[in-house]
Structure formats: structure tokens, C-alpha cells
Amino acid sequence: MKLQHRIIGQGKPLIILHGLFGSSDNWQTHAKRFSEYFQVILVDQRNHGHTDWSDDFNYDILAEDLHELITGLGLEKVNLLGHSMGGKVAMRYAQLYPGMIEKLIVVDMGIKKYPPHHQQILEGIHAVNRTSMDSRAQAEEILTPFIPEAGTRQFLMKNLYWIEKGKLAWRMNVAVLEKEMNQILAALPEREVMVQTLFIRGALSAYIPDEDIADIENQFPDSTFVTIQHAGHWIHAEQPEEFMNAVLEFLLR
What we know:
Elements: E1 5-8, E2 13-17, H1 28-34, E3 39-43, H2 59-72, E4 78-83, H3 85-96, E5 101-107, H4 119-129, H5 136-143, H6 150-157, E6 160-164, E7 167-170, H7 174-179, H8 181-184, E8 197-202, H9 213-219, E9 223-228, H10 235-238, H11 240-252
Parallel strand pairs: 2-3, 2-4, 4-5, 5-8, 8-9
Antiparallel strand pairs: 1-3, 6-7
């Protein structure tokens, strides 16, 4: 599938993959900073943002979408950064095409199968879908009981747009994402990847606990772990300076 993307800056390519329910819009501020050193390619993955929707959705398919983009742009080797679901896409791509990656950055995502934990977000999304409204503020009011964290609400609401008067719609294929949630939460296949990799985790996040690090290192032996304090799962939004500094230190050394 042809992925919608934007290119900012010049230099070695750095591709950024957003997470579940996200889009390339979530990464514009970071892309501007990174573009001082790299050619940054911001991607909307299938069923997200401005890329087409599809009933097919798993990590092999998402990795092949990425490969089509990379080869279509004529790139021989890229730096690849992925957050959350995008991190798993990036790791799967590294398993399938290790020779295409210069350096890999995985943001707050491990290799294991995760238990279901998006129920409240999905209930909030469905509540918005059921309601007519005159303003985005009303949408936020509807979301608040389901998603009390303001940052998470703002992240989600970047996906809302007016499809007609009184009717907001999501720039993501909620039906398929919900249907394929088991695929999204699934573990990666076991395969060793000899790519230089940085794992960035939030100190307040449960996605990469200490006890998972040994298993990750078995599959990604050339890996480094950085923990950013006072940050949860959305590290790049909660502690942007510390996050960007960690990324640049890894890529530029």
C-alpha cells in the first residue's frame, strides 16, 4: 500500500513511525528539530492519518508497506524510529530487512505479547461516534470520563475532523483496528537482529519492565536502553527535550 508521507530536511534519511491511533501529525515538532541533521520522513501507516484504509492489518503487512515506501524513494539504508505500535513495525522490519537499516530506535515498546489495555480509549471513541456536536470541545467533554489524562485526549483528538456539519469523524479505521487488536498486541517472531538499536522507555510506563530487558537483548544483542524520568508511554510528548537529546546522541555518535 502506498503510504502518505512528508519529507523535511536533508541528509541521511530518518523515518518516523507513529503508534496506534496516531499519525504523522503527532511528530511534526520533533521532525523539525531532527531535520537540522537528517532528511526526516514522516509516515502515516495504513488505517491511520491520510493513508488508505484496508481490512488487512498485521506487522508483516505493515513492514511490507514500509519496504515499498523505502524502495520507492530509492533509499539504500535508513535510520528508523518507531513509537509503540510503530516500534513493533520497526522491529519487524529489522527482522525482515536488517540490511536496510543503519540504526534503529524503539520508543516504549517491547517484543512480547501484551494484554488488552485499550478498552477505555475505544469506549471513548465509540461515544464520540454516537453523538452529534457543534464543537471539538464537546468531543473532549465526551472523551473525558473515558480518558481522564489530558495529554492522551489531545493526542487522540488530532485524529478528529469535520466530515459534515455536526458530525466529526476519525482519521483512523477504528473498526479494523479494534477487530485486529489481537494482532496489534501480538509478540514478534523470535529472530536475532544484529542492528544497532536504542530502546527508549518511560520511567512511569509499564511497557518495558526491567524483567523484559534480557529477552529483548537476546533478539537485539546490539542494543542500548535509556530510561527517561517523569515520562509515561508518550515519552516524546511528555519529555520532548530529553527524548530528542537521547535520539540525537544515539544517531550522531
